[in-house]
Amino acid sequence: MSDANYTAIKDNLTTYYGKAKNILTATLYPASGEIPKVDAVKVVNNFITNANNNIEQW
């Protein structure tokens, strides 16, 4: 793998981590955040699924 591939993996994982963190924070700390919206959970799930399916391309 080239350095560019590692950078793409890191960038994608960082993006997905941020999206998932927002959902988990709202779930685990509902007093300080809104409950997760179904559409937001679906978007993050799709990102994770696509990342998993494309990991070899990165």
Automatic annotation (TrEMBL):
The keyword Lipoprotein applies. It comes from the Bacteria. Keywords: Lipoprotein. This is Lipoprotein and hemagglutinin (VlhA) family protein.
